[in-house]
Amino acid sequence: MSDTANDLRVERKPKLSETVVVAIRRQLQAGEIMPGHKLPTEGQLTETFGVSRTVIREALAKLAADGLVEPRQGAGVFVTEHISTSFGVLAADMGSKDSIALNVLEVRLAIEIESAGLAAIRRNAAQEAAIQEAFFEFERLLLASQPTGPADLAFHRAIASATNNPFYVEMLDVLGRRAIPCDVTSPWSTEIAQSDEYQRGLQREHLVILNAISAGDAEAAREAMRAHLTHSQQRYRERLQARQAYYANSLKAASTD
Are residues 96 and 25 in contact, defined by beta-carbon separation less than 8 angstroms? Predict the structure, then answer.
């Protein structure tokens, strides 16, 4: 690449609000602000970081959406009681649970599209039965209003196993419970992915994947898996934006100065 091209390449600078989010995360991780304690006021944070109130509110909305702080009307913004040290370390290194969920979905797109196609071609009767069993277990749990995360992971893992290539299973095992953001039993769970509406959308897409694999249609299985994971990303982003807007409005009401 020419020197001119290198000169023209510009790296994206982090938004001011992102810088504030990272700084406050590190304070929480270090225990400088303890769970249950109140954060400095908007005015104090504005002076500390040298930014506008709008930037501070955007940063606090992000932290609230990630479950690290909570606005209390007329009282201010407080650190939530359930922050753990282990999550603090991971959050600092990898981002929020929401960003982790989106990143994991992106990785799964690279792995599971081909996995579904190979499963349609290579599956044996026992492997197909395992995929069906996981599908119906998800349905049973959904109708019973019980956590579906383990069955969701079992469905995708059964498809990976049906490729008869152990590395597909190993890749999902590396992601582990992070692969399923709707698993309420997992520390990686997020409230965005726990609604019935979100999970019913997943199950409808699971059925399309299952039918394509059962029909031995590799291309249809790939497209069904692509649509499933892409739609999951889209649904997640939409709910995340709505939740951040809600917290931004709550923070305005909670401001005391």
Answer: no
pLDDT tens per residue, the chain (257 residues)?
A: 445 444 444 445 668 888 898 888 888 876 778 888 899 999 999 999 999 999 999 999 888 877 788 888 888 999 887 654 434 434 444 455 667 777 888 899 999 999 999 999 999 999 999 999 999 999 999 999 888 888 998 999 999 999 999 999 988 887 876 677 655 454 545 555 556 777 888 899 999 999 999 999 999 999 999 999 998 888 777 777 776 676 666 666 666 55
Note the pTM of the prediction, 2 decimals.
0.58
Rounded (10°) angle between helices 97-122 and 218-254: 170
CA dist list (Å): 200 to 7, 138, 145, 214: 49, 10, 11, 21
